[in-house]
Amino acid sequence: MIEYVSTRNPSIKVRSSKAILDGQAEGGGLYVPSDLDLVKVDEYNRHMKLDGATFTLRQLDPEAEGSIGTRTLAGGRMETKVTGADGAPLGHLVFEDLEPGYYEVTETMAPGGYILKGDSSFYFKVTPAEMTLLEKEESLPMKYWSNAESPETLFENGTLTVTNTPGSELPSTGGIGTGLYCILGLVMMLGAGGALIIRKRKKMRR
Questions:
Q1: Which of 2, 29, 55, 148 could crosslink 135 through cysteines, CB 3.0-4.6 Å?
Q2: CA 98, CA 145: separation in Å to the nearest integer?
Q3: Torsion over CA: 81, 82, 87, 88 (sign)
Q4: pLDDT single digits (tens) 23-75
Q5: DSSP assignments along 48-114, one per residue
Q6: pTM, full prediction
């Protein structure tokens, strides 16, 4: 009999290559790869895969409390990737060989012609046996968070599908975007008003 051993977790052994594909480990346990495969798609057409989305993976401390931004695990993993880059298939990226632990994956830049959602972060728990998507509960340490099911995402067998809505970002507050248009509009209104007053004065002099 040929015995196959997981290169990511040598303690997991399976009896055949078919068992690897079926996800069955020796002893009836479940073998789940520790890779997170992320797929970026159009929200209205999930067959349309999108390159150019940037995601950052951050390993978190499951015991930490407070703001999520302060929960980075000291010495933990942090990595940024772009869908479709470095030879990845259209709309895909992979965070490979995740060690057991807790992770945050955040979309930091949408593909061209698309916009980010309000909260673009996803949270995972990785064990030698499985990977689960968690429900964000910021009032608790991450180790107490429960499993999540989100209508905006599809997570199955280590693959996370993330959607983006077509559109463009509005100019930021304080930038030259909307403020410049307001100023130009005000100048045009004042100019039109001044021209009207001058014409009325000319008529009165006649």
A1: 148
A2: 19
A3: positive
A4: 444 444 444 458 999 999 999 999 999 999 999 999 999 999 999 999 999 99
A5: EE----EEEEEEE-TT--S-GGG-BPTT--EEEEETT-TTPPTTEEEE-SPPSEEEEEEEEEPPTTE
A6: 0.68
